[in-house]
Design a protein that fits this description.
The protein is an alpha+beta fold and about 240 residues long. About 35% of the residues lie in helices and about 20% in strands. It is built from six helices and eight strands. Strands 1-2-3-5-4 form a five-stranded mixed β-barrel. It has a three-stranded antiparallel sheet with strand order 7-6-8. Helix 1 runs parallel beside helix 3, helix 1 runs antiparallel to helix 6 and helix 2 packs antiparallel against helix 3. The termini are far apart.
């Protein structure tokens, strides 16, 4: 049976000389992997150039019972980016965000709130003309709410530690290595409450940007099983250096 999907591309993997696997986060079913032909002709209905990280696509796929990978039959953008593909900073950030999402989003079930968050976040990012250098940091902090691992910091008070392993504020230093000292804890709490509208106020320098990105990645790694070190992180480091 052929179904219609709206989805955001997370990553592509080579399957054969003529096929690739496309991991997509869809509105209808959450994360699904599809097969797509490796075709670059403009006359083709399925062109590989469409499957760039974070591309927003609408497509049809024949989902047959018992088949692990369904094949995409037709695909076109449901929204077009005007700046991300042409801006080296934005495209590098998009590559990193897509990789983080590919390690984070595993559920194969519908989640409209999460899909809408992704959709609106990336369109906002594409439309920003300045003040977007910390988009990925604010995005990752906001994503925590949508994937159910947002830390419980209601009891936080200045001078407290943040236990990254437990996701809690602590008046005492934890007995393990995964925690933030009070000075960093204070900024971390502020970071978690930063919206896209206010992210330009962060004004992070290279050192702070790298440090708090490392903290967020550590938090993801502690709360998501088998979370690897993002390969595209080195690209970001070189970019902002």
């Amino acid at each position: 049976m052929t179904e219609k999907f709206d989805g955001i591309v997370l990553r592509t993997l080579k399957y054969s000389d003529s096929l690739m696997i496309v991991d997509v986060y869809t509105r209808q079913r959450g994360r699904i992997s599809f097969l797509a032909p490796v075709l670059r002709s403009r006359k083709s209905k399925v062109r590989s150039v469409l499957f760039q990280p974070l591309s927003m696509l609408t497509f049809a796929a024949s989902c047959r019972q018992g088949r692990q990978l369904s094949r995409i039959n037709d695909v076109q953008p449901y929204a077009m980016y005007s700046s991300i593909p042409f801006n080296v900073v934005k495209s590098s950030i998009a590559l990193f965000v897509a990789e983080m999402l590919s390690y984070t989003l595993h559920e194969e079930e519908r989640n409209d709130a999460l899909f809408d968050f992704l959709d609106s976040s990336f369109m906002l990012f594409d439309n920003l003309e300045h003040g977007y250098a910390d988009f990925h940091i604010v995005f990752l902090s906001q994503l925590l709410r949508h994937i159910g691992i947002y830390p419980n910091l209601e009891d936080y008070a200045p001078g407290a530690f943040v236990d990254l392993m437990q996701g809690l504020a602590s008046p005492e230093q934890p007995l393990h290595a995964h925690f933030l000292m009070p000075a960093e804890a204070h900024f971390f709490v502020e970071l978690l409450s930063t919206s896209f509208d206010s992210m330009h106020t962060l004004s992070l320098n290279r050192e702070l940007r790298g440090r708090f990105l490392a903290i967020l990645i550590e938090y993801y790694r502690l709360h998501i099983p088998d979370f690897p070190n993002p390969k595209s992180l080195d690209v970001l480091k070189e970019l902002f250096d």
